[in-house]
Amino acid sequence: MTSPGLARVHRWVALGLGPVVVAMGLTGAALVFREELTALFTPAVKVAGSPVAPGQYARILAAAERLEPAARSMDIVPPQRPDRAAQVVVHAAGTEHYLFVDPHDGTVVADGERQWLPFATLYELHRRLMLGAPGEYAVGMAGFALAFLGLSGLVMWWPRKLKQAFRVRWDGNRLAVSYDLHRCAGAAFALLLVLNAIIGITMTFDEASVALVNRVLGRSSPLPPPASSNAVDSRKPLDEIVAAADRALPGGCVVRIMLRDGNAPVVVRKRMPADNDTHGANRIYLDAASATVVGMSPLTAQPPGNAMFEWTYPLHTGTLVGGAYRVLLVFAGCVPLLSLVTGLIVWRSKAGRRAPAKRGAGIRPGTAASTSRGIP
């Protein structure tokens, strides 16, 4: 069931934004196994597996501040296993500086400004095309394009006979094989690609998405509480601050510590045993100078718009379902490339066939050219 108008819009959206969609798909496919493959491509992140002595957060922070003494904003991601380095992300002017620090002694074992960190590059490409804030809007537009291409392609694929739904004429010519692969691969992965596109859009425009969901459901988005001190210039030892967060919300593990400039609280994010694999949906806000809790936002008390990422993020990365689903996501991430290549082959083949027909249509009967071409 193909509408000429829908097919035309489908084609031009693919031609216009297809390369960005392909980049999102391929980088997303690689990031599905980011945790497992980082140690393979950056072996320096593998450290001694011995227990970590108290004071690890202070050592990690001191190492980051030695390299970035002017840093005003950073995230610390503690390792989830003792033989891995902690990750530090220093934010500055729309760019990120990635570091890996051994929590045992505070040694910087990998530095994104001195060596290539493959998965940090892939993440920045996937998140914002390494273009800063404008790149985020481009990624958001690519998400809308992918959702449209998936849905419109599904409409155009819808078969009259079910037995022909996934037929590929492998014995046909290049055009026939390309056309069938384009239809069948797109249809097979359309719903999964659309789902991931929608989740990606909500994560790209996270503040607007949270506000929209909460407003639709009649809930308000809570504001983070203010603090009375600057988390960068005046603070207690970071381990003391994290210990206060653990006392306020016992159990689970710390998965991210966020330090921001201004009178913003230190945010300690925790994942509880029953939570999904996220960056920590439970937030504890602490005043840095006194290491006192100024606010808490446990997952169970959050409005739906804020809590939705507890499910959508691990669904997007594949950790919610398991290994087989993650492998499926890898294949899905390669489908936009296959679709773009096969779509270009079909488009160029049809365009090449139309050109002689148009030239022939413009020749008047009875001329020498028309006679030589067999046109009556």
Structure write-up:
The chain has 376 residues and is α+β, with helices and mostly antiparallel strands. The chain contains twelve helices and eight strands. Strands 4-3-2-1-5-6-7-8 form an eight-stranded antiparallel beta sheet, covered by helices on one side. Strand 7 and strand 8 (292-297) form a beta hairpin. Mean pLDDT is 90; it is low at 366-376.
Offer a concise description of the structure.
With 376 residues, the chain is α+β, with helices and mostly antiparallel strands.
Sum up the structure in keywords.
376 residues; alpha+beta; 12 helices; 52% helix; elongated; disordered C terminus
Nearest-integer average pLDDT: 90
The profile of the biggest β sheet is: 8 strands, antiparallel
List low-confidence stretches.
366-376
Strand order of the largest sheet: 4-3-2-1-5-6-7-8
Radius of gyration: 26 Å
Helix content: 40-55%
- The ordered string of helix (H) and strand (E) elements is HHHEEEEHHHHHEEEEHHHH
Structural class: alpha+beta
What overall geometry do the principal axes of the alpha carbons give? elongated
Total DSSP E strands: 8
Question: How much of the sequence is in beta strands?
Answer: 5-15%
Head-to-tail CA distance between termini = 36 Å
Helix and strand topology:
Elements lengths: L3 H28 L2 H8 L14 H12 L6 E4 L8 E7 L2 E7 L6 E4 L6 H11 L4 H25 L16 H31 L1 H11 L21 H11 L4 E7 L6 E6 L10 E6 L4 E6 L6 H4 L1 H9 L5 H39 L6 H5 L4
Antiparallel strand pairs: 1-2, 1-5, 2-3, 3-4, 5-6, 6-7, 7-8
